[in-house]
């Protein structure tokens, strides 16, 4: 598994999302995902939305994924 594939899966599963994914060992990754659909959702719900885009890759080909999830407004405030 590689960061680009994960990015594509997240963005395909959350249309309109922008994802940045890093990781260099093939199993541990970190991602920043910006998506309007996160508005009004708690962090756990946001993470579940991202995990759902990766399906059975989580816990298999992707051993660990550290997430930072933000709405566009939250991302712009930084």
UniProtKB/TrEMBL annotation:
Position of the signal peptide: none
InterPro entries membership: BolA, BolA-like_sf, BolA/IbaG_stress_morph_reg
Entry's transmembrane regions: none
GO cellular component: cytosol
Coiled coil spans: none
GO biological process, one term: DNA-templated transcription
SUPFAM superfamilies: BolA-like
Family as reported in the entry's similarity comment: Belongs to the BolA/IbaG family.
PANTHER family (alphabetical): BOLA TRANSCRIPTION REGULATOR, BOLA-LIKE PROTEIN 1
Name of the protein in question: BolA/IbaG family iron-sulfur metabolism protein
Organism: Pseudomarimonas arenosa
Top-level taxonomy: Bacteria, Pseudomonadati, Pseudomonadota, Gammaproteobacteria, Lysobacterales
């Amino acid at each position: 598994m590689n960061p680009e594939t994960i990015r594509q899966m997240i963005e395909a599963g959350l249309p309109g999302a922008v994802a940045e994914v890093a990781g260099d060992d093939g199993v541990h990754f970190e991602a920043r995902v910006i998506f309007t659909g996160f508005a009004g959702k708690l962090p756990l719900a946001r993470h579940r939305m991202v995990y759902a885009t990766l399906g059975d890759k989580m816990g298999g080909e992707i051993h660990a994924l550290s997430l930072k999830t933000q709405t566009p407004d939250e991302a712009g405030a930084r």
